[in-house]
Design a protein that fits this description.
By secondary structure, the protein is an alpha/beta fold. It has one domain: Aldolase class I (TIM Barrel, Alpha-Beta Barrel), CATH 3.20.20. Helices cover 38% and strands 18% of the residues. Strands 1-2-3-4-5-6-7-8 form an 8-stranded parallel beta barrel, surrounded by 4 helices. Helix 1 links the parallel strand 1 and strand 2. The two termini are 16 Å apart. Bound molecules: cytidine-5'-monophosphate. The site of cytidine-5'-monophosphate has 15 residues, from strand 8 and helix 9.
């Protein structure tokens, strides 16, 4: 992996909206994340667009399906210049292994429990408390040798496996009143063990984009 640790979430509607923003970014200083919205609206051409401009790409589609379908999807993803991509650990051992077998140079990150779920949800869904269910999924990530995981800053301390790459969203260096509830500053996240941080709106909506990138680098 390169020494870049800042991942900027390109949560834009389409390439038109995104292209003005990325002209302020230096591909040597950040990785960019393409999520469902941008990928659904533009398809794989957004990957070529970013790659041609020198960016390393995190394709965040959170795959969750039968092993054969995930294998074929990861095979497609690995044909593009994609550095990191996501699958749901809840897809189970066979699905994770299917993804691993065909990942090529792309690193696979497992999503554990979505940060929108709480203890009430995990009891309803799995008859288990949040922390136990989270630990089950992290153990599975370790056993299947997935490359890394996406987790909230509060969950960082629950992950003891040093070989897992830890990617952490929900980062705020200034007070904000948006929908992120459990937040941490970039320096706290790094000192608590994050390998990469994911930052969206504090940079995409900043008045001075280069300054904001510097603040989170
Ligand atoms: O704008 P903001 O910094 O909140 O963006 C964070 C990015 O990380 C978004 O693309 C969001 O979908 C993603 N993300 C998250 N929480 C997770 C997983 C991903 O905020 N648990």
């Amino acid at each position: 992996m390169s020494n870049k640790r800042l991942i900027i979430a390109l949560d834009f509607k389409n390439i038109d909206e995104m292209s003005h923003f990325i002209s302020s970014l230096d591909p040597q200083k950040c990785i960019v994340k393409v999520g469902l919205q941008l990928f659904i609206s533009e398809g794989p051409k957004v990957l070529d667009f970013l790659s041609q401009r020198g960016f390393e790409i995190f394709l965040d589609l959170k795959l969750h399906d039968i092993p054969n379908t995930v294998r074929k999807s990861v095979e497609e993803i690995s044909q593009y210049n994609v550095k990191l991509t996501t699958i749901h650990l809840q897809g189970g051992r066979d699905m994770i292994q299917a993804a691993n077998q065909v990942k090529g140079d792309t690193k696979i990150l497992g999503v554990s429990l979505l940060t929108s779920l709480d203890d009430g949800d995990t009891r309803e869904l799995y008859n288990n408390d949040f922390e136990k269910q989270f630990n089950n999924l992290i153990n599975l990530a370790t056993e299947t040798k997935v490359d890394g995981i996406v987790c909230s800053s509060q969950e960082l301390e629950l992950i003891t496996d040093p070989s897992l790459i830890k990617v952490v969203p929900g980062i705020r260096n200034q007070e904000s009143s948006d929908d992120q509830k459990r937040v941490m500053t970039s320096s706290e996240a790094y000192s608590n063990g994050a390998d990469y941080i994911v930052v969206g709106r504090p940079i995409t909506q900043a008045k001075f984009i280069e300054e904001a990138v510097k603040d989170y680098s």
